[in-house]
Amino acid sequence: MEYRTYKGRKTAALGFGGMRIEDPDNIARSAETVLRAFELGITYFDTAPGYCKDKSEIIMGEAIKEMKKSGNPFTISTKSSRADGGELREQLETSLKRLNVDTIDYYNCWYVLTKKDWENRKKKGAVQAILKAKEEGLIRHAVFSTHLPGPHIRDVIEEGIFEGVTLGYSVINFPFRQEGIEAAVKRDMGVVVMNPLGGGVIPQNEDQFGFLKVGENQTMVDAALHFLLSDPRITVSLVGFRNIADVESAVASVEKFKPYGEDQIAYIRKRVESEFNQLCTSCMYCNVCPEGIPVWSFMETWNHLKLKGAEAVGDRLKWHWGTDIAELDKCTRCLKCERACTQKLPIMERFEDLKKAVKG
Ligand code: SF4
Ligand code: SF4
């Protein structure tokens, strides 16, 4: 197992993402998947209220009873997306009970979607409630999880409230969140990445992402994980495990991990830049819309349309970006965004593609 340090604690670089457990109604069987991961050296376990039909925390709690008996160290991360401080506190207390712990190691101010949303978390008391729980010893580290673009992640980090960040990061969107990662590293924060397989897009599109494989007999999962593990700024890469077989295959990948050399990383970057030059990098230079349309959100969603198909669009807009296709009705076609786009992408054309995908 490859290990990193998260705020002074030794942590396995491969983490257990508790959002995809395949049979959550079977608590005992699901807990065995968690325990197998622990047995194989995984020490970071990430869960949340609502994951897996709201059973994920309960499954983790069941496994934790056994993990405690072993005396070996492990850490647990859970979350609340509540903006109201009182509601967050209630959710935190439920999580502590379900997880069978007195302290949650990493508690995420969860799913910070937009700058407005972030301001709301402060205004309605969520952030204060997290900090109070930390003072009381119910939380060890206050962290946040986000889908914000890199520059906005940096702004939140620079407020100096949090000790770690959890964000979606993979070879598809790695140019997009660089600023956030760099800001986190500057402050010696932990960086946990979720969705390292791009929501399945990477393993399912071997023809497009095959260049990630730099060694013989590498699988796509293996290659995508190696790409992330080769980045020393990333503390933990979370994989959403369904079952014991998933755990064993990811651990086997990490066991044979040898960091990619500088030349290999440079080669992968070059391939990403040249082959995905038609993809939006979410650099946000198009953040100039007089109507307030978050152009980059729609353009990044177009990447998913291209790679995953039309059915990916609605969910991506709603759950990842907190927006809706109707937002595009505000567009006056002034073309300011197209002129500002670093990649000179046909933004208007892509808006039409997205509308067509949603409306059929
Ligand atoms: S549309 Fe162009 S400017 Fe806007 S985020 Fe994408 S690549 Fe950057
Ligand atoms: S073309 Fe539309 S989306 Fe682009 S800046 Fe103008 S109003 Fe905004």
UniProtKB/TrEMBL annotation:
<dbReference type="Pfam" id="PF00248">
    <property type="entry name" value="Aldo_ket_red"/>
</dbReference>
<feature type="domain" description="4Fe-4S ferredoxin-type">
    <location>
        <begin position="321"/>
        <end position="351"/>
    </location>
</feature>
<dbReference type="InterPro" id="IPR023210">
    <property type="entry name" value="NADP_OxRdtase_dom"/>
</dbReference>
<dbReference type="InterPro" id="IPR017896">
    <property type="entry name" value="4Fe4S_Fe-S-bd"/>
</dbReference>
<protein>
    <recommendedName>
        <fullName>4Fe-4S ferredoxin-type domain-containing protein</fullName>
    </recommendedName>
</protein>
<dbReference type="InterPro" id="IPR036812">
    <property type="entry name" value="NAD(P)_OxRdtase_dom_sf"/>
</dbReference>
<dbReference type="InterPro" id="IPR053135">
    <property type="entry name" value="AKR2_Oxidoreductase"/>
</dbReference>
